[in-house]
Amino acid sequence: MRLPRERRDRRRLLQAVMLGCVLALLPATWLQASAADRIRTVADAPAAPVAVVFGAGLWNGEPSPYLAHRLDAAAKLYESGKVRVILVTGDNSRTDYNEPGAMRSYLRQHGVPGSRVVLDYAGFDTWDSCSRAKRIFGVDRALLVSQAFHIRRALALCAAAGIDAYGVGVDENHDLTWYYGGAREIAGAGKAAFDAAFTPDPQFLGPRETGVAKALGLTAGSAAR
């Protein structure tokens, strides 16, 4: 016995909605599964040559609180000898907004020698930062530093870019910014899946940079300035 047309249409609509929800959540599920065993704290992170710190905005030219917390974690990694160089990657697409420069200034104020901080001025999003870290700066192994809600995406994309990485997830109070960031990650998972699958060129590629290699080659004495 066939269902009335109206009921068949409602059932098909429900099935389509359910299928859409499943497909929408697949990228987020992939991010959760792919990075589950690669997330650490500052205390138990393995040693790596480089820490990569992703930008998170400036307030009046200074790192936002979330960005400051990422930089605090990176400074602790450097102080404990877990990393020897910190690559700060962010947005400097206009002259009045220099995210990497502000990040370096903050790290210097917190005890990291400026000669150990390398700047990527074209880290416009997570994929660009990961791709450029590998292709422009020659990073093969790294600790990635970001908030816990973002670190899985960073790990998945840096793996797709060819970087062997562990992530240091920075804890935050669960305020409105935290919930917004978590919700934004669900939307960003789809783009992350595309970037990981097709590995497009970053928005700005540019020539190869030797800053990381030079900073890694510094002696302890020459770095202390």
Give your account of this protein's structure:
With 225 residues, the protein is an alpha/beta fold. 51% of the residues lie in helices and 15% in strands. The chain contains eight helices and eight strands. The protein has helices at residues 5-35, 65-79, 99-109, 126-135, 148-161, 176-198, 211-216, 220-223, and strands at 39-40, 50-54, 58-59, 62-63, 85-89, 117-120, 141-147, 164-170. A six-stranded parallel β-sheet has the order 1-8-7-2-5-6, sandwiched between helices. The chain has a two-stranded antiparallel sheet with strand order 3-4. Helix 1 crosses helix 5 (148-161). It is globular. 40% of the residues are buried. The model is unreliable at 19-24 (pLDDT under 50).
At a glance:
The chain has 225 residues and is α/β, with parallel strands linked by helices. The protein is built from eight helices and eight strands, in the order αββββαβαβαβαβααα. The N and C termini lie far apart (83 Å).
The total count of strands amounts to: 8
Outline the biggest β-sheet.
6 strands, parallel
Spatial strand arrangement across the major sheet: 1-8-7-2-5-6
Topology as a string of helices (H) and strands (E): HEEEEHEHEHEHEHHH
How far apart, in Å, are the first and last alpha carbons? 83 Å
| Overall mean pLDDT | 85
Which shape, going by the Cα principal axes? globular
How many H/I helices?
8
CA gyration radius, whole angstroms: 20 Å
Extract low-pLDDT stretches. 19-24
What percent strand?
Answer: 15-25%
**Structural class by secondary-structure content:** alpha/beta
Proportion in helices:
40-55%
